[in-house]
Specification:
heterodimer, B: 5 helices, elongated, binds zinc ion
C-alpha cells in the first residue's frame, strides 16, 4: 500500500519540471502498447494517465509530492494561513483524483489542468455563489490517446516556458498577479498604490511581450 | 450543428478565466464555451501560462498529515457524475437555474416571454423566448449586454445570430433584435445594469418586467 511505501525523505518536490525522460518514471502498463515517440511525454503526464486509467495510487502520490507544495506556495502568497492553504491543497488534490477521468493530455498539460482546478477552487472560496463552469467534455476513448498531439502540446508549452523566462521581473510579477491572485485590478491598486490604467497597461505589456516572444520562438 | 460565427473576445474570456466576472456574465460565457470548441480551446490557451507559472512557483512544504489525509480519502465513493445529453436545449451550466419540467416563463406581450435566472444589484441573467418574426422590445443598455442564442436565430442592426452565437452590445448600441423565421428564438441574455427602453410604456413596465 501506498501509505506504507511513503517515505517523507523522498517527498521533496524535485522531479524534472519538463519532458522528464521515460527512464525516470516507472514503466506503465499502458506504455507497452504505445509507440516509441511516447517517450517524450513528461513524467507528470505519465503519472496523470496512470491515475486516470489505472487509479494508480503511487502515481497519485507522485503528483501530490510535485504539485501540493507548489500549490501551497502560491496560495500562501495570497495571504492564507498555513492550515487554510493546506485545506485548499487537499481539496484541489482530491479533485485531481476524482476528476481524473476528464483529463485529456491532448487538450491540456497536467500543470495547466491542475492550475485550472485550483483557480476555480480559489475563486469559489471568495464568492457567495459558485462561478458557473462550462460543461465537462468527456474523454471519449482513453485507449485512443493521441500521443503525437500530447507531445505537440508539451512542445508548445516548452516554447511558452522559454518565452516566460524572457520577461522582465516586473512583467513576470504582473503575470503572476493576474494568474494567481483572486483580486480585481482595483484591489491590486490599493496594494501597490499604482493607478488602474498603469496596471492594465502593464499587464497588457506583459502579454504583448509574451506574444512577441512566442512569435520569435516559433519562427 | 451549424458553425458558430460570433465568439467571446479574448479580453472578456481572460476576465472570465481569472474569475473577474459576476455570476450573470459567467453564466452566459460558461454556456457559450459548453457549445463552442473554439472558445474552449482559447480558454485552455489562456490557462497554459498558469500551468507553467505553477510549475515554477516557490514550493512550501506540505505536512505529512495533510498528505496522509488525502490518501486516506481516495477510496471514498465518488459524487454522482453528471451525464450530459447532447443536443439538449440548455447546456449544463444552466442546470441549476432552469427547471425543464416546470419552466417559470412570464409573458411580456406579443408572444415574447422571459425567465429571470439570477439577478442582483449590478447584473442579471434571463432567458428570452421570441416567436419567429417578433421583435424584442426596442432597448438600449446602461452597460454591457451579452446575448447567446440557444435555439432559432435573431437578426439585428449588427448581423444574424444563430445557435451558439454570442452578441456583445455596449451602452452605445440601441438595437432591435427580431427573431428569424422558423423555430422560436430562445436566448440567454445578461446585462450589467437595468436596460432602458426607448418608449414610455415599456419604461413604465420596466420595474414590473425587470428587464
Ligand atoms: Zn466561441
Amino acid at each position: 500500500m501506498l501509505v506504507q511505501d511513503y517515505n517523507p525523505a523522498s517527498a521533496q518536490p524535485c522531479p524534472p519540471t519538463q519532458s522528464g525522460s521515460m527512464a525516470a518514471a516507472r514503466p506503465l502498463a499502458e506504455a507497452s502498447n504505445l509507440p516509441d515517440t511516447q517517450t517524450e511525454i513528461s513524467v507528470q503526464t505519465q503519472w496523470m494517465l496512470a491515475v486516470r486509467d489505472a487509479r494508480d495510487r503511487d502515481a497519485f502520490a507522485q503528483l501530490f509530492d510535485y504539485f501540493a507544495p507548489r500549490l501551497k506556495g502560491v496560495i500562501m502568497r495570497n495571504g492564507s494561513t498555513d492550515s487554510q492553504a493546506e485545506d485548499i491543497v487537499q481539496d484541489v488534490m482530491l479533485t485531481v483524483w476524482r476528476k481524473a477521468h476528464l483529463f485529456d493530455p491532448a487538450r491540456a498539460q497536467v500543470s495547466a489542468w491542475v492550475y485550472q482546478i485550483a483557480r476555480n477552487r480559489q475563486i469559489d472560496l471568495h464568492r457567495a455563489a459558485k462561478r458557473p463552469l462550462p460543461e465537462d467534455l468527456p474523454v471519449l476513448d482513453q485507449a485512443q490517446d493521441d500521443a503525437s498531439a500530447t507531445i505537440a502540446l508539451e512542445q508548445e508549452t516548452e516554447k511558452l516556458r522559454k518565452a516566460l523566462t524572457k520577461l522582465k521581473p516586473q512583467q513576470r510579477e504582473m503575470l503572476e498577479q493576474a494568474y494567481f491572485h483572486d483580486r480585481s485590478h482595483s484591489e491590486i491598486k490599493s496594494q501597490t498604490g499604482l493607478p488602474l490604467g498603469t496596471i492594465k497597461s502593464r499587464i497588457r505589456l506583459a502579454l504583448d511581450r509574451l506574444r512577441h516572444e512566442l512569435k520569435e520562438v516559433n519562427t | 450543428m451549424t458553425p458558430i460565427h460570433h465568439h467571446i473576445p479574448e479580453a472578456l474570456l481572460a476576465d472570465y478565466a481569472r474569475g473577474a466576472l459576476d455570476e450573470a456574465f459567467s453564466l452566459v460565457l460558461a454556456t457559450h464555451i459548453s457549445l463552442c470548441d473554439q472558445c474552449r480551446a482559447t480558454l485552455g490557451a489562456l490557462e497554459a501560462p498558469g500551468g507553467v507559472l505553477l510549475e515554477e512557483a516557490a514550493a512550501a512544504p506540505v505536512s505529512d498529515a495533510a498528505k496522509a489525509a488525502v490518501l486516506a480519502q481516495l477510496d471514498d465513493a465518488l459524487p454522482q457524475q453528471p451525464v450530459y445529453r447532447k443536443d439538449r436545449l440548455y447546456p449544463a451550466p444552466l442546470d441549476e437555474f432552469v427547471n425543464d419540467d416546470n419552466p417559470r416563463w412570464s409573458k411580456m406581450g406579443g408572444g415574447v416571454k422571459q425567465m429571470i435566472l439570477t439577478q442582483n444589484a449590478s447584473s442579471s441573467a434571463r432567458l428570452l423566448y421570441i416567436p419567429a418574426g417578433q421583435a424584442v422590445p426596442d432597448h438600449g443598455h446602461n452597460g454591457m449586454e451579452l446575448t447567446l442564442v440557444l435555439q432559432g436565430a435573431f437578426v439585428d442592426e449588427t448581423g444574424t445570430y444563430a445557435k451558439g452565437d454570442l452578441e456583445i452590445a455596449d451602452s452605445d448600441l440601441e438595437h432591435t433584435p427580431v427573431a428569424a423565421p422558423g423555430a422560436p428564438c430562445i436566448c440567454l441574455a445578461a446585462t450589467d445594469a437595468a436596460l432602458r427602453f426607448n418608449s414610455l410604456i415599456p419604461r413604465l413596465l420596466q420595474p414590473i418586467f425587470r428587464i
